[in-house]
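subagent[fold] <- orchestrator: predict structure for attached chain, return tokens only, no commentary.
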Amino acid sequence: MKFSQIPEHDNVKRQLIDMVDDDRIPHALLLHGPSGSGKFLLARAMAQYIHCENPGADGESCGRCRACIQHDTFNHIDTHFVFPVVKTEKIKAPVSDDYIDEFRSLMKTSPYMDFEKWAQMFDKKNAQPIIYVSESELLERRLSVTTAGSRYKVVIIWLPEKMNEQAANKLLKIIEEPFHDTIFILVSDEAASILPTIYSRCRPIELRRLSDQAVASILEHRAAMDATDALALAHIAEGDVNRALRSLDATSSSRMFFDYFITLMRRAYQRDVKELKKWANDIAALGREQQLKFYDYAQRLIRENFIYNFSMPSLNYLTTDEQKFSRNFARFISENNAEKIIQAMNQAQEDIAGNANGKIVNFDFAIKMIIYIKNF
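subagent[fold] -> orchestrator:
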């Protein structure tokens, strides 16, 4: 992984490169920021640059030497990965090595490191992956051995906030009394959840979210998406590549929600109570979680249609189909009813989340829409 392969974060890249070039690498570095922003990619790029046998003057690893080739295949002997795992009946004291093949697969298929995807890879679906004390004990033994072919051993710890208390305290001791040839790179989505004493001994570097344009470019490249649709999806994901890709996987659900939204608004405009009752029953049949997701989707479309009326395309993030619908529908959403509609949707969500009868809640909301859609 080269720095040039990672979008944006130019200031952070420069800091990391200068640390290596000036031989002033902190023994514990913490890269933290929003999920899906590329922190883990930067950790990988730095580790490769540290180990590269022929680094370029431009601050890049060569990509051709033995060390770079080993990094590309996630097999560099002096690079150690630590990450959350789960206990099973067969594995009572789990360590990262027990799941290293699965982790290599994640790094290859999901380079922005989707934790939800990682948690789903385990057979024990309800277990919450964490880093156990057995990991810290193994790490201490490994780091006591000298490097095999490099000046430094690099330990990349993904999501240190997932450590249990015993593991965190054990790691703290290792960081407080570091081996002279060991560098820790911690990669965190929630730095505030890291043990404060560990945080205080790290050099923190905060990353910002990726721009919508950067995420859209990734979507266009990976999924051959239309530029307009990619930008709309990127905006919804708020700079999180993982969230954007999950939304892409759920495109069929979004299309279903879009169809239900259109049906609702058309039947409310026509004051077709019979069809609205049928609509309410159909939505209820989706189940509680899908109903909640529908109301999330519907709120976004209401907000986007309200903004659409300002005739400023740069502020709108709609897919091609949503945009076509909004050309005629947006005029029915104004300052007179937008807030009321959102509040009604929020109330419907709260009621459904509280196990209220979905048919009744949805029908009540649909009837309210008859009033709101006429009072624009």
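orchestrator: received. Logging for downstream: The chain has a mean pLDDT of 90. The first strand starts at residue 28 and ends at 32.
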